[in-house]
Amino acid sequence: MANTSTCQALGFILGPVFQTCFALIGEKGVAWDIIKLQINMYTAPVLLASFLGILNIILILFILREHRVDDLGRQCKSVNVPEENADELQIPEGSIDQVAVVATNIVFFVVLFIFAVYETILTPLTMDMYAWTQEQAVLYNGIILVAFGVEAVLVFMGVKLLSKKIGERAILLGGFVVVWVGFFILLPWGNQFPKIQWEDLHNSSTPNTTFGEIIIDLWNSPREDHSEQPTGCPIEQAWCLYTPVIHLAQFLTAAVLVGIGYPACSVMSYTLYSKVLGPKPQ
């Protein structure tokens, strides 16, 4: 299972690498007017994912085969050939702990939920907190996720050896503790606040103008240069006015800790689930 999780981590590495490369295309990109297709930094990853999905379907249909093995790992009979000696195939019987199966599935859901939330909030979080443009957010976060994936591969390989000494449950618990510490560090501290998008226009307002009128005027005012989008925390988000900024050191430290805890929890949840089901065909 550790090897399977390592291959999964390779996907985490290559995905951000492609994302970082596609960021160089820019938002405008290239237009293919014949089929009304716009290829830019947002559509290129989707097209690549669609191509890989079709490739996986072809591999599953024509290349991959299922096999049954006994308790010692010896191949019994492929399920893709006609059943001739079905009586010779002996599948060990035994009760499966249903509570453990449900518990491991819940653990696996929590682990994936943690990573999905972290990966999803990266771009909007950095754009609001550090006043990054969309191109900068995609590029920098892609680099961070590449480092995250490399770290995950190292953790996967280390966990494979460490589990033989201290056990899977201890590593799973330790991984959750490390992830919790990472998200705790990610909490906003201090008295420095993020840059507001319309801060310069707000400061130049006249005293007789109410705050609501300022917001309405800013929202309805046309902008001549549409290529340069405003950066910073949008003023319509009320939390921007009272939530301290997450310092870059906090952000990177949390990324390192989550990069350690997530792969440890992931591979251990896979391993425990496989052990709970036992040697039966899963």
From TrEMBL:
Database matches in PANTHER family: INNER MEMBRANE TRANSPORT PROTEIN YAJR, MAJOR FACILITATOR SUPERFAMILY DOMAIN-CONTAINING PROTEIN 8
Keyword Membrane: yes
Organism, as annotated: Rattus norvegicus
Annotated transmembrane regions: 39-64, 99-118, 138-159, 171-190, 251-273
InterPro entries in UniProt: MFS_Domain-Containing_Protein, MFS_trans_sf
Protein name stated in the entry: Similar to 2810423E13Rik protein, isoform CRA_a
Keyword Membrane attached: yes
GO cellular component terms listed in the entry, alphabetical order: endomembrane system
Organism taxonomic ancestry: Eukaryota, Metazoa, Chordata, Craniata, Vertebrata
Protein topology in the membrane: Multi-pass membrane protein
Keywords tagged on the record: Membrane, Transmembrane, Transmembrane helix, Transport
Cell compartment(s), UniProt: Endomembrane system
Gene from which this protein is expressed: RGD1310132
